[in-house]
TrEMBL record:
It comes from Frateuria terrea. It comes from the Bacteria. This is Flavoprotein, HI0933 family. It holds the Pfam family HI0933_like_1st. The lineage of its organism: Bacteria, Pseudomonadati, Pseudomonadota, Gammaproteobacteria, Lysobacterales. Gene3D superfamilies: FAD/NAD(P)-binding domain, HI0933 insert domain-like, Translation factors. The keyword Flavoprotein applies. Residues 187-336 form the RsdA/BaiN/AoA(So)-like insert domain. Keywords: FAD, Flavoprotein. Its cofactor is FAD. Residues 4-389 form the RsdA/BaiN/AoA(So)-like Rossmann fold-like domain.
């Protein structure tokens, strides 16, 4: 069987690329080994798909080349995807910080993409595994479970390694290497962090405790929710910082990001001299955490017994609490995969390989990873669109 464009992966990037190329009159076939398209879209955003972010900038992405994403992101903006969502009359809302979610269900986004594919004449084959790819004169021959296919252009949109149970494989990386591309080391991103040994024992019984906090690693910081879990820490602030944190590095937490604790504590001592420190701290922190901090570090005496320098040390500590993480929960729960196909080998305007004409890499398989909050889908749409315009 022959087609103009063969896309491997019916996820966010592959479907957007298929729509764009199909609308240009190209014959497009999308293959996926999973039993249905868009599985990650379905599970995204807690079932409501955080499909873009109004504040997208290249600075919201991690890549060995921070300039690579600029061109594609500039040419397919959040407003372009919002226009598509509105055309399909899908109700949506802004949750916070520019994050757009469906009011009802992620299923609507998948339905929209499939309807657009159908209108553009795109064929989608699910449950179809790709066994081998060869480059030949004028295109590619692809051996699949359903026979041999020939295509003028091949687009690899097979995603990263996160959530293997949803069909994630390292296929795209292997294909990239087969064609001489460098693949930058991969690791789990947007993922809960684990604690071990005495560090875990200190917090394990706080599982379920949540608070607003700022998580810092190196020069990067994120202010959002923090959640203690049985195995470590999670919540948006931790997921975000996990993409920047490297094993062995220390994390610092600001547990009172909206207060000046060094000023607040002396004021509390004046106002409530007989109150114990843990009771005072519990005004601003979850009670169990306030108690644990006192046990671990601050002691717990009536406020009048704390001298000024001691209170200022405690205040500073509340804004700079050290946390020693041992690792991450890994690909099993990670939202994304950091690293991937090295952008040096790709054109930033078309996503085409600089080594093999007609070969393209788009979406998460590329070494471009977004923050939490709709940035990863926007990269999938934008890179898929960039390739779809030329493929
Ligand atoms: C739980 C969860 C929630 C998320 N929520 C959000 C969110 O709300 N907002 C956001 O922006 N991002 C979110 N993300 C990240 C986002 O889902 C991904 O960044 C995005 O789906 C990447 O798109 P993609 O098309 O590159 O890859 P994918 O969507 O992963 O698609 C790749 C496709 O390729 C197929 N495939 C893989 N290997 C093969 C093979 N060998 N042969 C054939 N097919 C193959 C897979 O089955 C899959 O369908 C979330 C991720 C997870 C795991």
């Amino acid at each position: 069987m022959k087609t103009d464009v063969l896309i491997i992966g019916a996820g966010a990037a592959g479907l957007m690329c298929a729509i764009t190329a199909g609308q240009r009159g190209r014959r497009v076939l999308v293959l996926d080994h999973a039993n249905k398209p868009g599985k990650k879209i379905l599970m995204s955003g807690g079932g409501r798909c955080n499909f873009t972010n109004l504040g997208v900038t290249p600075a919201n992405y991690l890549s060995a080349n921070p300039h690579f994403a600029k061109s594609a992101l500039a040419r397919y903006a959040p407003a372009d995807f919002v226009a598509l969502v509105e055309k399909h009359r899908i109700a949506y809302h802004e949750k916070e910080l520019g994050q757009l979610f469906c009011d009802d269900s992620s299923k609507q986004i998948v339905r929209m993409l499939l309807d657009e594919c159908a209108a553009a004449g795109v064929r989608i084959e699910t449950g179809c595994a790709v066994e081998r790819v060869r480059h030949r004169e004028g295109g590619f021959s692809v051996a699949t479970g359903r026979g041999e296919l020939h295509a003028g252009a091949l687009v690899v949109a097979s995603g990263g390694l996160s959530i293997p149970s949803m069909g994630a494989t390292g296929f795209g990386y292997e294909l990239a290497r087969q064609f001489g591309h460098e693949v930058r080391p991969t690791r789990a991103g947007l993922v809960p962090l684990t604690l071990s040994g005495k560090h875990q024992e200190r917090y394990a019984d706080l599982a379920g405790v949540a608070l607003p906090a700022e998580a810092r690693s190196g020069r990067q910081s994120f202010r959002s929710g923090l959640l203690f879990t049985h195995r470590g820490v999670s919540g948006p602030a931790i997921l975000q910082i996990s993409s920047y944190w490297q094993p062995g590095e220390e994390l610092r937490l600001d547990l009172l990001p909206d207060r000046d604790a060094a000023a607040w504590l002396p004021a509390q001592r004046t106002a409530r001299p007989a109150a114990e420190l843990k009771t005072v701290l519990a005004d601003l922190l979850p009670k169990r955490l306030a108690q644990r901090l006192c046990e671990l570090d601050f002691g717990n005496r009536p406020m009048r017994q704390y001298r000024e320098p001691e209170l200022s040390t405690i205040g500073a500590r509340l804004h700079d609490w050290p946390l020693v993480a041992s690792g991450t929960e890994g690909y099993r729960t990670a939202e994304v995969t950091l690293g991937g196909v090295d952008t040096d080998g790709l054109s930033s305007s078309t996503m085409q390989s600089k080594l093999v004409p007609g070969l393209y890499f788009i979406g998460e398989v590329v070494d471009v990873t977004g923050w939490l909050g709709g940035y990863n889908f926007q990269w999938a749409w934008a890179s898929g669109h960039a390739a779809g315009e030329v493929v």
